[in-house]
Predict the 3D structure of the following.
Amino acid sequence: MGLLSDPQSRERVLLFLIRHNSKLCILCYALGLVWFLLLPLPPLSAPTYISENALLPGLVKREFVGGPQALSLSREFAANKALVGGLPVEWLNKTMTSLGLEVHTQTFAVDLPFPDEINERYHVRGTNVQGVVRARRAASTEALVLHVPFLPEANDQAMGLALSLAAHFRKQVYWAKDLIVLVTEHDLLGIQAWLGAYHGINLTSLGVRSSELGGYCGALQAAITLQLSSDVATSIDLQLHGPNGLLPNLDLPNLVHHLCLHAKVLCTVQELLPPQEDNAWWQSMHIMLLQALGQASTKPASEHGLFLRHRVEALGLKAINSHRQEKASLEKLGRLLEGVFRSLNNLLERFHQSFFFYLLPSLQSYVSIGNYAPCAAAILVVLFLCAVELWAKLNPEKERRTREAAASNPASIPWLSVIGSIVIAHGLGIALYLGPLVAHQRAANYFDLPEDEAVSLTALGIGVSSLSLPHRGSTPQGWIWLKLFALLELGMLLLALDLLNFPLAFMLAIPTVPAAVVSQPSHKTASIALLLVASPAVISLMGLAMKTELNPHGPTSGQLGGFIGLFLRWLQCLSQSILEHQSLGTNLYPLFTLGLFPCWLQLWHVALWKE
Amino acid sequence: MIPCIVSQTPMIIYIFHFLIDYSELVFTVVDITTTVILYLSAKKTALYLWEKQKCRKWSVDVSEILLRPKSLHWLPLHVAAAYLLNPLTVATCVARSTCAFHNLLLALLMLATQHNSIMLSAVFLALASYESLYPVVLLFPVILQLAQKEVKGKLMLQNPYLLCFILEYTVVFLGCLSILLMLSYSLLYSSDFIPAVYGFILSVPDLTPNVGLFWYFFTEVFEHFRLFFICIFQLNTFIYTLPLIIVLSDHPQFLMFIQIALLAVFKSYPNLGDVAFYLALLPIWSHLSRYLRNSFLVLCLLLSCGVLFPILWHLWVFSGSANANFYYAATLAFSTAQILLISDYLYAFRRREFHLKYGTDIKTQDGRKMMVELK
């Protein structure tokens, strides 16, 4: 309190802040960046451990011997799939019943707002099949889910393994929780329809019509999504993040990793090998950046992601078959899964012991929220410092103000031009959010384009044309008020985002914060250049380029290389993000259009302010 | 110690027995009425401040910090706008919190006090205290305000007229309060409502998270220290009254404002409607703005709390990934910001009074400019 009530020390601090403002800003920004780069190193990243004692992964005895059965079931499934030309519901029903499961099917229908050209769907009709292994000695109050997404060209072995595991589990007496073997169609849309029906809610703006679900099993405790398309696998890849950067409790990936070590199966994240002794920093950073980019895209890593939104801890397991020597058979993988499910069966309460906010530089180490929060804070402080300087410029300390200056009218706030600019910026944000959905039909007919291209081109058109809107300030001081408002708004936006989805906030902050701080009418060229780099379009383009560059598989074949290819993919991503926002409730598009874009546009007005 | 199902007073429950079907309308009307009353009250306050400024003697060079009629002219409108357009008021109205009624009663109390109506102010003070107990402490500013007109001679404790007036007013107030309690008794034919309403406020059995400081502390505290800490926390709510009376006895208006603001921070179940009410009174004291020192810091803190509250609530209660500590951190920041704001206004008020008395340009003995400190 001394600092805040003692006028002398107060004045000294304020003077110090104002005099060294630019140095302090640069220092804080650099601190944030360096801190982020240091995150994979030991003092900041700690070794992982299993925090929930009830899991008891070491005490589980594995007895699964259904390897051959799994193989024959997967062959049979593939044959029936080819016969029906889709999900063989009849066959699944029959097989699950013969294995002793309680079978329920659910049909669902979703109409997308515009045709999805990548997945080639518009009016989606599908069926989910659910087989329940009831725990003999429990009251069906809790359940675990083994989820197998149906894919037209893959995932047959996953189906076979899940069915034979269910047959094995049914014979055991130790179950305290029911087990649901769930087969869903149309990837995320199917699992969303099932989760919505199971919990009786709809989390998106899209109407999902689905039939009544039978066979409720109480609260879902955990879910594993399985992807397996070969008879043997060389490694298991853990897929962590769900929509909007949600992560499962760290205990769940730790558990699977622990059991993989036990079974001598290679376990990876982001499909990259664990960091080796030499060059460990870059390899850890690579893994961490891929996780961060994945979270920042707000798109779930696999079908498991939507469970996370319903407070069900979930993990995607993707079996990979590469050229490595050690291969794991279906039986070995089955035993691994048996171990996972028996450990989950031991849970006494929901996962809550370990972290929900973390970054993984490798499976052996993690960075907790306490260790990565300082880099976000350091960068936010830059905005605050800049705002303090502007505030001091607008309100010179009353103590120092001479009487003459006080007697003359203090500069009145140019309300009209400042508020006008604020309203225009936010109105354009709303137009950019709604425009593509409202106008795409007309644009598609008029220019004879596919609808999803029409959507992204409409968005691009609105975005670019909004740059030319009037931004004529009439008073010399006006831009300071506008910039102050924009800085505060950007700060609040990034603060909120830091808590919800740290990687996204950090990636937005890196380019936008310097642009926001620098932008002013007297440094026109520098501020325009920085603002162009920090524009929402360029940020997302850079994110996409980074993702392509870091992708362990390199660019997929059939994709155009170079800048043109990147731009075309970016247009695709634009329409995809609108579609995902509508159908899955990911919030990248509204965040960019309703949050970031208005802030950016106000700063743009500041840079072009006529003094 | 069992949380009560209903902790509203019998009167409110009785009234809502008839109004529950029109509750949207009722809360809207109540908010608009409060705004109108605040407008009238602020008009009267502006007049009062102007009169007071006219009839006092000032130091020589204070013309720049004196009130100007032009700013006073717009003051009531600013107060009304600050109440009605505040997002917090709108949120309280949408949530249909009975806080709207408490605010209405407080506004009525202020209006009645401004008009020097002893009877009406006692009635509204009794109603406000009956509703939420804490406004009892407003008895002192109200008495001081009324005594300025009613009591002859200096406002000193030795003055027999003042003592007589205090006694008289207290009796009227207690009379009104006992009539209200009696009416409630006759509605229920039982006195169970007293522990259910006032026990609920004082012993804090309901630890549902809110924007105050009590809930987290009492979920963490060991059971056998509970009584001790409840006493401390409740004492903390009331203890500021005495020093504030001593310091601000000549300015009951400001005393009342500070009291209302402090209650909104320290009461056992504070909510955003209380904050909205005292924020609406800030324009009355806008002439203090030149002496405010932390306004930007407070603004940033309040804004970020406004962002953090819903997000941390969502992360904790809805998605289950954060926990109570995150939300409590935001609560702490919110309370800190409010306390900074209140102490800043107190400082600014005292500082302005000082300058009015000794002039704005004061030098120390060795000729340097003097600094004014709040100690």
Observations:
- Chain A touches chain B at residues 4-8, 10, 246-247, 309, 311, 350, 352, 356-357, 384, 387-388, 391, 398-399, 403, 406-407, 488, 491-492, 495-496, 499-500 (CB under 8 Å).
- The CA atoms of residues 275 and 282 of chain A lie 8 Å apart.
- The first strand of chain A starts at residue 46 and ends at 47.
- Chain A has two domains: 53-363, 415-611.
